[in-house]
Design a protein that fits this description.
Layout (H helix, E strand, L loop, with lengths): L7 H18 L4 E5 L5 H9 L4 E6 L4 H11 L8 E2 L1 E3 L5 E3 L7 E7 L7 H10 L4 E11 L1 E2 L7 H13 L6 E2 H10 L2 E9 L3 E8 L1
Parallel strand pairs: 1-2, 1-6, 2-3, 6-7, 8-9
Antiparallel strand pairs: 4-5, 7-11, 10-11
Helix pairs in contact: 1-2
Length: 205
């Protein structure tokens, strides 16, 4: 039996994220979570919104931990996690299992600053093929604005990220917005969150 991984950050941020997402999830039915990590968010959000079919996904290395959380929760609306990976140029996109149904919402937390920029570009390029018209996209995490950090702690965090992996780093909100617009997404909201994070929300036009 796989031991369940644990993230204290997930425990701390799940309630503020859920409260911010409540109005957006009321009329959704199928949600794809990209970068489910430990699986804690998937369990918590599937419990909070029982009318949703919640689909976790991540790199194959993380799937066993997500399955452990899912098995322990026993929620009928929490789907088995599947592998999702970004495909880099010359054909950027997302690799998912065959016959994956389309979703009317996507959620991702604390992923864009971990991924290399090419992978972020591939993620946005691949999203429309997985989504229904009018689908929502919600991305949580730290962002820079106008090329500037929003706090000293974010500047320190960015330094730590780049020391660990030069390809990672806090993204400029404007650059992410440009990627979204290029794929047909329309900005809906940019919400302040605790600990100098943001929740960016778009709708697919």
């Amino acid at each position: 039996m796989t031991e369940k991984p644990y993230s204290l950050a997930c425990e701390r941020n799940r309630d503020p994220i859920a409260a911010a997402l409540d109005p957006f999830m009321a009329d959704r039915r199928r949600v794809l979570e990209i970068g489910s990590g430990t699986g804690q968010h998937a369990v918590y959000f599937a419990q909070r919104w029982p009318w949703l079919q919640w689909q976790p996904s991540d790199h194959p290395d993380h799937l066993a931990g997500i399955r452990a959380w899912r098995d322990d929760a026993g929620l009928a609306n929490l789907q088995p996690p599947f592998a999702l990976q970004a495909e880099l140029p010359p054909a950027p996109g997302l690799v998912v299992p065959a016959a994956t149904p389309r979703f009317d919402a996507v959620f991702s937390a604390n992923t864009l600053h971990i991924m290399g920029w090419e992978h972020v570009e591939a993620l946005f390029a691949g999203l429309p093929a997985l989504l229904e018209g009018g689908a929502l996209l919600a991305v949580y995490g730290p962002f820079n604005y106008g090329g500037e950090y929003t706090s000293d702690s974010n500047a320190q965090f960015d330094g730590w990220l780049k020391a660990r992996d030069p390809r990672s780093g806090i993204r400029d909100a404007e650059a992410v917005q440009a990627l979204a617009v290029a794929q047909g997404f329309i900005a809906v909201d940019d919400l302040p969150m605790p600990a100098n994070n943001r929740l960016l929300v778009w709708r697919l036009g």
